[in-house]
Amino acid sequence: MADLETFRAETRSWLEANCPDEMRQPVRDEEDVYWGGRKATFKNDAQKAWFDACVAKGYTVPAWPKEYGGAGLSAPEAKILREEMGRINARPPLSSFGIWMLGPALLKFGTEAQKLRFLNEIARGEIRWCQGYSEPGSGSDLVSMQTFGEDKGDHWEVNGQKIWTSYADHADWIFCLVRTDKTNKYQGITFMLFDMESQGVATKPILLISGNSPFCETFFDDVKVPKEYGEGIPAQVGEVNRGWDVAKYLLGHEREMISGADGGDRTSAIGAAMLRQTGELDAVLRAELAMFDVDALAYGAMGEKFLDEMKAGKGHPAQPNMMKYVGTELNKRRHELMMSAGGSTSLEWDSEETGGGKPSRNWLRTKANSIEGGTSEVMLNVVSKRILDLPGA
Ligand SMILES: Cc1cc2nc3c(=O)[nH]c(=O)nc-3n(C[C@H](O)[C@H](O)[C@H](O)COP(=O)(O)OP(=O)(O)OC[C@H]3O[C@@H](n4cnc5c(N)ncnc54)[C@H](O)[C@@H]3O)c2cc1C
């Protein structure tokens, strides 16, 4: 305990010295977050200074081992860092699918050489990754995916199409599910890594209801994926034809991330923020806010408990599905409330007062929360079957 108190004090003074004031503000839009990658630019000097300080300290991925670019923090230390960053409203220094999704899968299934290369690149924000799972006709029923990689000796020749590939047009590399055996549904998929600049890869942005275009259709036309990127660095993670195991493991981490259970926006101060925004609240809205606040706090407490259990190896493997369901439905409710509180102003699409329609665009974006990473209906199916053990589920 004394060690942890010392760690807390050291962390607090390190943050005081290294986190610029501009980085102690809530994230308001995409540009407030640094996503890294070959094409990335920093929004301002403060964002760069904060990112550089965190990379040097291993704080872009605090709980990863030092040899892979992390700080090697224990679970209680990582929790203290989260709390101390939350206390000063520090923005994440780096957001990336590499950190949330691919990294955990590599830590579990990667070869040592793969980990040394890719995890360090992720920690330093050098490569931006996208996720090639869904296909037209294969979303919830992901295992039916058809993108095919033909074995050509020293390389795979990949053909097919992915869809809903978030930020594919900004990404440098893709982690991609590729069928390598058409005769075996579950044990015929390989989890491959390849460069989005490979010849034959094309992306086409899809426009969302919010007016933004954060994801794409992704096409593969005779893409040559080398089987090895150097000694001990195969293109696939895990074994050839056993990518489904890797894919499922990664989905658990994706769902945990989308649920916001690891320190996401709890917003128990939502009522106060609305009061500032609107000046007054009617009785019905006040009651709805109070109910929301109670649920958000309960969810936060449940998230902490589940995280502790998972880090101690005692969590139920299906817990992220439950958290994803509750967290995303809660976030949708939160934005409904914000729209109600904001009145007709929040419906404005382009006005200066709303920062170019931020309330309505953000509200519409939340509609996707209960679809991305697995829909609410599918999460409930998993909970019925694997946690509640319901007959017939
Ligand atoms: C914002 C956003 C970002 C995304 N980013 C990515 C990405 O980066 N990479 C990627 O690969 N994919 C991505 N996706 C795709 C996402 O994973 C799929 O949309 C999701 O898995 C659902 O698949 P689907 O869209 O094909 O819907 P479908 O599977 O066709 O489902 C349609 C409806 O049927 C319901 N349904 C389906 N099966 C069942 C069942 N067994 N029981 C009950 N109801 C069922 C669903 O709940 C849903 O309401 C993203 C999606 C969104 C919205």
UniProtKB/TrEMBL annotation:
In alphabetical order, the GO MF annotations are:
flavin adenine dinucleotide binding; oxidoreductase activity, acting on the CH-CH group of donors
Which segments constitute the Acyl-CoA oxidase/dehydrogenase middle domain? 130-223
Q: Where is the Acyl-CoA dehydrogenase/oxidase N-terminal domain?
A: 38-126
Keywords, A to Z? FAD, Flavoprotein, Oxidoreductase
* Database matches in Gene3D superfamilies: Acyl-CoA dehydrogenase/oxidase, N-terminal domain, Butyryl-CoA Dehydrogenase, subunit A, domain 2, Butyryl-CoA Dehydrogenase, subunit A, domain 3
Q: What is this protein called?
A: Acyl-CoA dehydrogenase
Q: Where is the Acyl-CoA dehydrogenase/oxidase C-terminal domain?
A: 241-388
Q: Which cofactor does it need?
A: FAD
What family is this?
Belongs to the acyl-CoA dehydrogenase family.
